[in-house]
Design brief:
Keywords: Heme, Iron, Metal-binding, Monooxygenase, Oxidoreductase, Signal
CATH superfamily: Cytochrome P450
Number of helices: 18
CATH architecture: Orthogonal Bundle
Strand content: 5-15%
Distance between the termini: 42 Å
Low-confidence stretches: 1-66, 137-141, 306-316, 558-563
Organism: Hanusia phi
Family: Belongs to the cytochrome P450 family.
CATH class: Mainly Alpha
Number of strands: 14
Helix content: 40-55%
InterPro entries: Cyt_P450 (IPR001128), Cyt_P450_CS (IPR017972), Cyt_P450_E_grp-I (IPR002401), Cyt_P450_sf (IPR036396), Cytochrome_P450_monoxygenase (IPR050121)
Cofactor: heme
């Protein structure tokens, strides 16, 4: 029914192809040491990238997909995008026929890539050509955040931030704060007489941890949670779903007609499941607070206003500005001594660029730049990390065999201690494999995208044909699709942490993955996720603390992780 509604609404869109462009979000996995020495950092410690192995063949699979580029008409791809709801789902749909699809949307060429060889070429071997996510001309913002910063600006931001997230001593320092906060959350969960939403608590914990890392603020966000369990009443459930779909469709239609930049379009068509979950939660609160009419009316008015002719005002909200201004004032007076991320950003001195016309010298980051960088870190780090923790715990407690292996490993690594430490990470190998399997299976970062800065040719395709790419083309890759590729993974729908152990390739089972670039939960290339190593340490240590110090039981009747808005558990 939802697909039919979208098709009807899109009948008038098939001839529309204007404004700017669009596509994918979220970066992933590789860290650049130098132009000739790039290494994978998908684990807690960096390890060299293994050469691509021969393609793994699932005995249940048929022949490999054809490797030539398939062209999809613009009208059809526009309709398909709205029907499937996000770019990752669209890529998964197209990948059944070919590993490379080319289409044109909003006046720009898009390549949908599901071949790990091409992922390597785009993100690593031709990283200099495919290095940006936004064009300077298309971006309406004077200052940009970390996510869409280009060239030298991005390098300057990362040079300031890398020591806070990549240095071993800083990760260890952050780890000393993860576990105490997790222990406080566990005690609060135990005090609840009823079932609790595991996702909500873990996301709130992740938010509290990140606030501490960024601002040195000690806030226990889970204590401010409101009861937001989905209703059992079918009428109320239908109402919240309808309101969520209406708001998402309104947003996506506005992006199709009025978008002015690649990244804004991408955000509208990324992670439909996550967007609908958030919108359903907001609609649920509106229903419970008797604000349904006002909520729906505001959606309709916003849609009509966005589609009405006239000059559009482009503005960007600046989050955290009062906090930044207050901290800058405190630092001038010498009142603040914490070495957190905000302090590092304010104190940073960056060499001026020639194009700025100021000659050689140093400059400070503006308040607007700092606020947008902090916004991007919060957006990328809170929801995804919290959901990985919740999903990992959920998968472990639902499998007796996996739970026994994890408990045995915790007993061996921790001994009589109840709380894990950073030094224990090297011994928690099976738990780390569980986390990686959750990242592969659920793909919380649904898209990786790059823009071609010049004309180039891709030659790494498994076919003998080269692929010409024009300047400005958008390359879309999906960790979700790569993680479910039957050519790279044995029975990809199965939750099997052993596939990431060193002995996984024994017997009749091939070594997995068949290509290292089939597993890029944190992206690939120089734009490797800033917080990847810190996030991995957080997920493993928090999960270990929860399983070691609480009896967590999944509620009967709940579906698998990621299929519902909540994961209900009882904690004792």
């Amino acid at each position: 029914m939802r697909a039919r509604i979208a098709l009807l609404l899109l009948g008038s869109l098939s001839c529309v192809c204007s404004t700017d462009c669009f596509l994918s979000a979220n970066l992933r996995g590789l860290r650049c040491r130098s132009s000739n020495n790039i290494c994978m950092t998908n684990t807690i410690e960096s390890t060299a990238v293994a050469e691509s192995k021969s393609i793994l063949r699932n005995p249940n699979c048929g022949a490999s997909n054809s490797q030539h580029v398939r062209c999809v008409p613009a009208a059809r791809s526009t309709i398909d995008l709205l029907v499937h709801g996000d770019l990752s789902n669209l890529l998964e749909h197209y990948a059944r026929n070919s590993d490379v699809h080319k289409t044109k949307l909003c006046g720009r060429e898009f390549y949908l890539i599901s071949d790990p060889r091409l992922v390597r070429e785009i993100c690593v071997e031709q990283a200099g050509t495919f290095r940006n996510r936004e064009e300077q001309q298309g971006c309406p913002m004077k200052a940009v955040g970390l996510t869409v910063a280009v060239d030298k600006v991005w390098e300057e931001y990362r040079a300031v931030l890398n020591p806070s997230f990549f240095k071993r001593d800083k990760i260890e320092e952050h780890s000393e704060m993860f576990v105490p906060m997790a222990m406080a959350m566990i005690e609060d969960m135990k005090k609840k007489d009823a079932s609790v939403d595991l996702i909500a608590f873990c996301v709130a914990l992740s938010q509290s941890i990140l606030l501490r890392v960024l601002f040195s603020e000690e806030i226990f966000s889970w204590r401010q949670l409101r009861d937001n369990i989905p209703p059992r009443n079918p009428i109320l459930k239908l109402a919240e779903h309808a309101m969520a779909w209406m708001e998402l469709l309104q947003k996506q239609l506005r992006m199709i007609f009025l978008t002015r930049g690649v990244f804004e379009f991408i955000k509208a068509f990324t992670n439909r499941k996550g967007q609908l979950k958030f919108l359903r939660s907001r609609s649920r609160q509106a229903i419970r607070d008797f604000r349904v009419v006002k909520h729906v009316s505001s959606l309709v008015l916003r849609l009509l206003k966005s589609l009405s002719p006239g000059k559009k005002q482009v503005g960007v909200e600046i989050p955290f500005l009062p906090i930044v201004e207050r901290r800058r004032s405190e630092m001038r007076e010498g009142k603040f001594g914490h070495d957190d991320v905000l302090t590092r950003l304010i104190a940073a001195e960056i060499p001026t660029r020639v194009e700025e016309g100021a000659g050689e010298g140093l400059r400070r980051l503006s308040d607007e730049e700092i606020c947008l960088i902090l916004r991007d870190i919060m957006t990328a780090g809170v929801g995804s990390t919290g959901e990985v923790i919740a999903s990992t715990v959920w998968e472990i407690i639902r499998s007796k065999e996996v739970r026994e292996k994890v408990d045995a490993e915790l007993e061996l690594a921790l001994g009589s201690r109840r709380t894990p430490r950073y030094q224990d990470l090297t011994q928690l190998t099976y738990l780390t494999s569980c986390v990686k399997e959750v990242l592969r299976k659920n793909a919380f970062a649904s898209l990786v995208f790059r823009l071609a800065s010049s004309d180039t040719t891709l030659t790494r395709s498994s076919s003998s044909r080269s692929i010409p790419v024009k300047k400005g083309s958008v390359m879309i890759m999906s960790p979700q699709v790569l993680g479910q590729d039957e050519d790279s993974w044995f029975n990809p729908s199965e939750f099997r942490p052993e596939r990431f152990s060193s002995a996984a390739g024994g017997g009749d089972r091939p070594e997995e993955p068949a290509d290292a670039f089939s597993f890029i939960p944190f992206g690939a290339g120089p734009r490797y996720c800033l917080g990847a190593q810190t996030a991995m340490a957080e997920v493993v240590l928090v999960t270990a603390a929860m399983l070691r110090n609480a009896k967590i039981r999944a509620e009967e009747g709940m579906q698998g992780a990621g299929e519902e808005d909540v994961l209900l558990v009882r904690v004792g």
